[in-house]
Amino acid sequence: MAKKRSFKRALIMAILSMVVCLSMFAGTTFAWFTDSVTSSKNVIKAGNLDIELYYDNSVTDDWTKLTKDTNVFEDTLWEPGHTEVVKFKVVNEGSLALKYQLGVHVDSEVGSINKNEEAFKLSDFIKYGIVEGEQTYANRDEAIKAVDATATLLNAGYSSGAVQLDAKKEKYVTMVVYMPTTVDNEANAKDDTLAPTINLAINLFATQVEAESDSFGPDYDENSPQFSIDKVNALLAENKDATLVDCVAVDGVLYAPAGYTGTLTLQNSTIKGIQAEGNLNLKIAGNVVVNAKGSGVATIADDVTAPVFNGSAISANGKLNISGNGTLSAIAADVNGAFGIGGLNATEVNIKDITIDKAFGGYAYGVGDDEKYYKDAPEGGSAIGSAINGAVINLDNVTVKKAVGGSKSAGIGARYHVGVDVNIKDSTIEYVEGGVTAAGIGASRVSNGASENATTITITNSTVKAVGGEYGAGIGSGYDTHCQKVQPLVTINIVDSTIEAQGGKYSAGVGTGYHTAALAGEIKNSTVNAKSGIKVYKATYTSAMDIGFGVVDPSREGVQTASKIIYNGVEISMEKAPIVVDGTDALNGALSEGKDVVLSSNTSYTLPSLSGKTGIVIEGAADGSSSISAVNSFNFGEDTTIKNVTFESDGAHSVRYATTSGDVVFDNVVFEGRQYGFHVDNANNGTITFNNCTFYGRNALASTGKYVFNNCTFKYTYSNYNTTNIYSEATFNNCKWDSKLELAIDPGAKAIVDGEVITQRVVFIADARALESFQQSVNWKNNTYAGVTVMLSADIDMKDAYYANWIPIGQTGATQFKGTFDGHGYTISNLNVNATSQTGGHYSSGLFGWLNNAIVKNVTFVNATVKGNHNVGVVAGYMETSGCTISNCHVIGATVVANHANNDACGDKVGVIVGHAGNAGVKVENCTVKDATVTAGRDAGQVVGAALTANVVNCSAENVTVTANGQCTGANVNNAVIGRVLD
């Protein structure tokens, strides 16, 4: 070894395996070769193809047939200097001469982390070489010397080219694989990481030699499918149809000369490129990979005159038609002007009925200096597209799994400085991404607007996910580097489609890129989820829109006021593009002109009256740091939208005595008032909608409008200001309230909470402490809560030891709950009641003890334990009067126990939901119990201990066991929904 290394004796724990592929055309195309025909005197046997591959690695010391399960290297441990020698023997065991091609490439690989904390792959360090003949070497130095001059890294791949092998003949080659002694810790895996692994694929393909003759000469099979790049190129040069099947030629390029009118078919093959000097009709069958990044220099047959390989995977200088029923991958080399599918001079790209697994343009995931807006980035090509002004790209019934445009090129569409027409019909684009400065679908970087063609994008009956490159729209245009007043128009028409689009920095999701303002088109009958990239660049510029326009400078490109796009009937125009304002004066100026505005980060504004204004949009910075000073006696105008701001408190209020002229929407707005958060005096019969808003303090909603709260949060400040006063109709959908907050509903008004109409006062409970306060209000202050709804607004867990001995809410006839308790679908966990010390004949145990004309509904209990002596259940112990109801209550996992205390409390009337429901007119309905045990002296059931049959409706129990404890008579202890039927 050249020098000592810290890991000289530490073997690199790596596994090098082989995946073997043996392929012949005898299975399909040449099936007749295996037939036999018998006559009265002669047997005529058809010729057959039969090829085998054997190996000898000096461990077996004999020739062994290679199969797909063979591990040639026996899981060898590798270190610098380690060398393996493997001999291969190709045998033609058939009766026909054949051509074969032997290939080697990395089939799969798992990397690791080295001692230097760097990621690495073993294929970057292990080298190999192949020499002709059956070679034997005396030692490793001799073996390495034999191949060192021509050896390549494992990741480079190898192809023998087409080799003729006559019937019953054999051919030998020798492979030497070694790790150079110069490798050090960069290829040494950390002790705590997985060892790197490589699967090295050996591909052997064979086909009949075309020189086999019949009675009329050697040309009867000249149009048979070929596996030879040379043969297919010869057919293309002769303007004949050609088919390449089951070929792995990682450095092979197919070349169609100008004037070619035939059809080229590829089936289950891997090559480097397809290059047409004119038009090309290409059919895809099976799985086809065209990887211009493949190893080695591109090779074209010696007798074919061809230009230098251009780096595109599939390119044409004219019309390119691709069809079939197979799957295609097209990966361009990192070369300027290299396309995945299309080319610098493709006038049309028509793709139909195939699946594109992946398509990458040159320099995909573009590189360059963002500080210069990628001006120094290389200039690649589209994944699917053209660099010709006015070229047409059509995708019809195509599935694209992933397409990524190269630097300064759209994913599907134009290379920089040109305009194209893109038509996508009846297709699924699972993911397409533009290169830097380019759209995901559409146009790219603009240089001279006066000379560049317009771009038209039409998407019909398709599903698309598109992501813009840096400064490019998801679907639309790219970046105008010169911020011109005259720009090429981008027209977007989307019909009957589902679209997800993400814009790049300062760019629309669907619309224009950075500094681009020429837009037209319409979106209709479609579902569009579009998001812009970073919205704000600086004050006086517009803010990027989700659908519409990216950031533009109104003093330059923004003069194109005729630009607009129509989305579901609504016109989005350049004139309405929101202006970024950096202070109150700029805000006043923009609003006076009827402009929508975007507020700057960490800036406070004084909002002028919006009286007389219609359709104004005021949007705060995306980080939510924009604020507006408290307003008093303020008019919010009509059809106003305010987003992403905080209305500051003036010490008591944030919005007070507000009025509107019509509908108003608040999105993601915080109202900070300590006394009044939002107080409206007159909504002029409009609707005020709050989405994702947060309120502090009291809120007052006037009788002259309607109010809708979606996903809003109401926060407690202090007890004197904890209500939302409702004087008309307020709808609350999926909202959250802190404990102690209330809805105060005026007579004739109503609240609709998640679909439930409420016309009485509501008190919210969000934690165990508030639940206890409610309990104390009933038990200590004799507050019955008649006419009040007590509503949970969060799940409550009572596992804290402080709540370990819960005192029931209203235990006897002296303390009763008479209101409505609405769990609102929430869960109470770990309720623990131990009332065994209470021996009175009327003492009842559960979350509630004694219910009088009360309603308990919509709550689930998990892991409850309730112990008492008489009238025992998880929800309640006793239901007294007609109208008393327990509905839609559920218990999962419970232990309910009633012990004998005396003759009045002898461990009786015990059920998991309620103990006693025997009075006329009470109701237990739509309740369930699962995984519970009941132990009692008498009158015990799975759901209800004792009840009239009519009082229990649609209730059930699963895995509930009821057992007599022997402390009382044991009568009516039943594994039934009702333990004792009192009819």
How would you portray this structure in words?
The protein is mostly beta strands. The chain contains four helices and 89 strands. The protein has a 19-stranded parallel sheet that branches. The radius of gyration is 40 Å and the shape is globular. The relative contact order is 0.03. The model is unreliable at 1-47 and 211-217 (pLDDT under 50).
List keywords for this structure.
4 domains; globular; 983 residues; 19-stranded parallel beta sheet; 18-stranded mixed beta sheet; mainly beta; 4 helices; disordered N terminus
C-alpha termini separation = 99 Å
Tell me the number of strands: 89
Which word captures the global form?
globular
CATH topology of the largest domain: Pectate Lyase C-like
Average pLDDT, to the nearest integer?
86
Which structural class matches the secondary elements? mainly beta
Radius of gyration, taken over Cα atoms and rounded to an integer in Å: 40 Å
The major beta sheet can be summarized as: 19 strands, parallel
Q: Which residues sit in consecutive blocks of at least 5 with pLDDT less than 50?
A: 1-47, 211-217
Number of helices: 4
Number of domains: 4
- The proportion of residues in beta strands is 35-45%
- Which architecture of the largest domain would the CATH scheme give at its second level? 3 Solenoid
Helix share, percent: under 10%
* CATH class value of the largest domain: Mainly Beta
